[in-house]
Amino acid sequence: EVQLVESGGGLVKPGGSLRLSCAGTGFTFSTYSMNWVRQAPGKGLEWVSSISSTGKNIYYADSVKGRFTISRDNAKNSVLLQMNSLTGEDTAVYYCARGRRAGGPYYFDSWGQGTLVTVSS
Amino acid sequence: TVMTQSPETLSVSPGERATLSCRASQSVSSNLAWYQQRPGQAPSLLIYGASTRATGIAARFSGSGSGTEFTLTISSLQSEDFAVYYCQQYDNWPHTFGQGTTLDIK
Fold it and tell me: Could B42 and A111 be called an inter-chain contact, meaning their C-beta atoms sit closer than 8 Å?
């Protein structure tokens, strides 16, 4: 069974940093793209970032470019999202999602349960 | 690519048919997915390639369309189908989602 488990969310002050982690089990992690999608409270879904299976290709939404960094460790079956210079607009549940479609862009066939990031003073 | 879903809310009785629409601001070919999100849960994939059901998805869910106009149809609504539905294009970067359609019980 495919499982994605996010961790690292919490309360952070504006301007602060946070690192999210997602662990994948039940599938060959190194052969799939991995992605982060967020959902602000009461709002819809917003794609944040993608990383290809090898880590060679990385993409960001304009809203986070220059502030967020995605990376992966295929030996540990994990994907990370380093978030810097956080603002209230980054407050959201962050979902880790497995991507499908060779070369991207991707659709997302498995999702984690999400981790809540709250940016507030 | 801007994705626009309609209606924002759809009220339907159990056992009836629901038709949800999604429009793209430019052609996305058949690179369109539908997701279901129940309250308090993560989204889950229903349809990809505009019309292919994901693994384990009931046959009452069907998708159609290509280019800029897409439809998700749920025949004979069950209680567990009342949720929010999102479309997403994956034809070009950045991925974009529609704003969602809430399907609620009439």
Answer: yes
Q: Which residues of A touch B45 (CB under 8 A)?
A: 107-110
Determine what percent of chain A is predicted with pLDDT higher than 70: 100
Q: Considering chain A, what is the average pLDDT of its residues?
A: 97
Read off the pLDDT of residues B53-97 as tens digits, 9 standing for 90 and up.
Answer: 999 999 999 999 999 999 999 999 999 999 999 999 999 999 999
Chain A residues within an 8 Å CB radius of B97: 44-47
Sign of the alpha-carbon dihedral angle for B29, B3, B45, A56 = positive
Q: In this structure, which long-range contacts are made by residues A69-76, counting pairs with CB atoms below 8 Å and at least 24 apart in sequence?
A: A70/A34, A70/A36, A72/A34, A74/A29, A74/A30, A76/A23
**Measured between CA atoms, how close is A73 to chain B, in angstroms?**
24
pLDDT digits (tens, 9 = 90+) for A79-119: 999 999 999 999 999 999 999 987 789 999 999 999 999 99
Chain A CB contacts of B33 below 8 Å:
107-108
Which chain A residue's Cα is nearest to B56? A109
pLDDT score recorded for residue B11: 96
